[in-house]
Amino acid sequence: MRREAARAKGGFAGYDRACRGIDLESAATRVAAGEPHVWRLKVPDDRGEIMFADAVRGDVTFPVEAVDDLVLVRTDGTATYNFAVTVDDTTMAITHVIRGDDHLSNTPKQILIYEALGEVVPVFAHLSMILGADGKRLSKRHGATSVEAYRDMGYLPEAVTNYLALLGWSLDGETTVFSRDTLSESFSLDRVSRNPAIFDDEKLEWLNGVYIREMSAGELVDRMVPLLVSAGLLTSEDAAARREWLMKLGPLVSERLKRLDELVPMVAFLFSDTVEIEESARTKVLEKEGAGRALDACRDALASLAGFDTESIEAALREVPERVGVKPKVAFQAVRVAVSGSAVSPPLFELLELLGRERSLARIDAARPFAVE
User: Fold this and answer.
1) Are 326 and 363 in the same domain?
2) CA dihedral 249, 251, 254, 255 (to 10 degrees)
3) Catalytic residue status for 140
4) Is 19 inside a domain boundary?
5) Which of 176, 250, 338, 358 has its CA 20 to 30 A from that of 102?
6) 326 part of a folded domain
7) Is-contact 127 101, C-beta < 8 A?
8) Each residue's pLDDT tens digit, 8-33
């Protein structure tokens, strides 16, 4: 029948109900004789249009002619998807079936199965698909596909939850950042959009950065320590002993972090005895005229300080540029590159306090031969 329909205009039109009228005794005899068979749903002849109120899409109607006597149990004895999920949901007393709109065509079939079983039909809600930035259905080609992958990339669970909630739903049309408790208290299907949502990696990264910046110093340190330990920068015992030091470091990096996996490369120089200066930083900063004079003067100013705290360090270094005839940017960038190895780092004066006097002076001495007078 399928081959004949394929040759005819319009193609295969579905099951022709050839075995619909077989009496139970004949069917049982043929089954006992080993004849291959399936179990089908006998759609009532007098069943009208299949209608249901979708919690997202509103009233949806399917013509009953669009549903043939669908197979419930295959020849090998296994249940088909529509039969299995309907029985499963019924057994678990599921009240709401919330799923992607790619399952919309399954709904009329499942409604007929619920009715045949004499069970209450649950509320259906079909969500629009999530698309990639290219407008195509989200898939592996768009990047990370697992929760673990996003965790390893440095995304916070609360930021991911917040962002996923925004894909097709909104709290009030304006609020972007909200807690899980707020989401739990406020979520309703009537605010779910019918339009497909776009998964925007940049927005997720921005939102993750917001969550990082809103953390307390103590909470941020708790998130930082496992990463620092895993990278071999310190041990758990060191972290406990140096917690006060880490509490000072946290706020310095939080403003620059969008993902937690950026932390280790950003602060690794603070945990080493020496630092390797990036070639680009050496060329653009240390080889600029006046960098050598600035380093010498800054070193002397730091070495003469009675106390090595951020306030004292800043006061001493801010006097250097005018005294040696260089721009503040030249002087401060030269020190930054010398102690961190990069032209980009956490705030300089706080950074020097964290490094301590001895290590700061040693790094300036090591960088001095590369600096131009």
Assistant:
1) yes
2) -120
3) yes
4) no
5) 176
6) yes
7) yes
8) 766 556 777 888 889 999 999 999 99
